[in-house]
Design goal:
The longest helix is centred in the middle third of the chain and has 21 residues, at 53-73. This protein is globular. The mean pLDDT is 96. α2 (53-73) crosses α3 (115-127). It is 31% helix and 19% strand. It starts with a helix and ends with a helix. It has 129 residues and is an alpha+beta fold.
């Protein structure tokens, strides 16, 4: 079981934003912006395009619900959807509130948030789901 599967199963703590029986959304612990959320399938699959068409469509619809809640919780021009990352062999979508493309620069210094700030951010997103 990989780290994201353990997070979705509750074996590793996370700041949960949304979930259903197939997908799980939680805050990135090294965010590039407030509200930076990861959306994963519960099923272990390394590459997003290895998902069958119906699963990928459901995944995108779930991510859209989270992105809509993010935009309400953190008013911004758009919510970026970024699919990258070779560090964890589990498909994941980064959802990041953005007002400019610079807000989605993964090379910049990550935000340092307290446990309380993470909890408040996750709650703000959950309230808007």
């Amino acid at each position: 079981m990989d780290i994201f599967s353990k997070i979705a199963a509750g074996e590793i703590p996370s700041y949960k934003c949304a979930e259903n029986d197939k997908f799980y959304a939680f805050l990135d612990i090294n965010p590039v912006a407030k509200g930076h959320t990861l959306v994963i399938p519960r099923r272990e699959v390394d590459y997003i395009f290895d998902m069958d068409d119906s699963e990928l469509a459901e995944y995108q619809v779930f991510a859209k619900k989270v992105a809509t809640a993010l935009k309400k919780a953190f008013p911004c021009r758009k919510v970026a959807q970024v699919v990258l990352g070779l560090e964890v062999p589990h498909a994941h979508i980064h959802l990041i509130p953005m007002n400019s493309e610079a807000d989605v620069d993964f090379r910049k210094e990550k935000l340092k948030l307290t446990d309380e700030e993470f909890k408040q951010i996750a709650e703000a997103i959950r309230k808007n789901i």
